[in-house]
Amino acid sequence: MTVGVRHLTDELRPAIAQGPATAAEFADAVRPHMPAMTRLAARLGPNGGQDDVVQEALVRAWRHRSRFDAARGSFSAWLMTIVANEARRAAGRIRLPVRLEPITRATTSEERLDIEQALARLSARQRLAVDCFYFAGLSLTETAAVMRCSEGTVKSTLSDARDRLRRELGDRSP
């Protein structure tokens, strides 16, 4: 699914604060978040199943749009939480290896395998933090919302994950 990215207009902001009411408002509100939603679904969901995960998450978000509360967090964090939950459900239904999105620097096949193995050895909480922050590009605030914890906990979890990856990978840390 390819969706263009654009910033929310000032006219849309009040609608998002209340939760998008119409299908057009919902589509306009979701559009800028589609790339991050797809990246997170690819990281957390079954291999090759990110489009299905995103579609299911969009259906769930549409059905529950009245539950969005801007006072509790951003629209982006709300969407990413739904994507993360749907990806976990999908991964539980289909037991396939999770696909690793591209590493930001050129790697050999051997290095990539080492990185994949090191990431797999992180705790589930550390993997979720790494997936949200580094692979899906979520902010600390959005990552905290997805993980249902404080930003300080996200920072600590990411620090612990980086330390573990450095130990496991030596000088080749991602």
Can you walk me through this structure?
With 174 residues, the chain is an all-alpha fold. The chain folds into two domains: 1-99, Rna Polymerase Sigma Factor, Chain: A; 101-174, Arc Repressor Mutant, subunit A. Helix content is 63%, strand content 0%. The chain contains nine helices and no strands. The longest helix is centred in the middle third of the chain and has 19 residues, at 75-93.
What's this entry about, in short?
By secondary structure, the protein is mainly alpha-helical.
The number of strands is 0
The proportion of residues in beta strands is: under 5%
Mean pLDDT: 77
Separation of the first and last Cα atoms: 28 Å
Determine Rg (CA atoms, Å).
Answer: 17 Å
Total tally of structural domains: 2
CATH class of the largest domain: Mainly Alpha
- Report low-confidence residues grouped into runs of 5 or more: 1-16, 94-104
SS class: mainly alpha
The CATH architecture of the largest domain can be named as Orthogonal Bundle
Instruction: Please report the number of helical segments.
Output: 9
CATH superfamily of the largest domain: RNA polymerase sigma factor, region 2, helix turn helix motif
**Which H/E pattern describes the elements?**
HHHHHHHHH
* Largest beta-sheet characterization: none
Shape: globular
Tell me the helix content: 55-70%
CATH topology name of the largest domain, in short, is: Rna Polymerase Sigma Factor, Chain: A
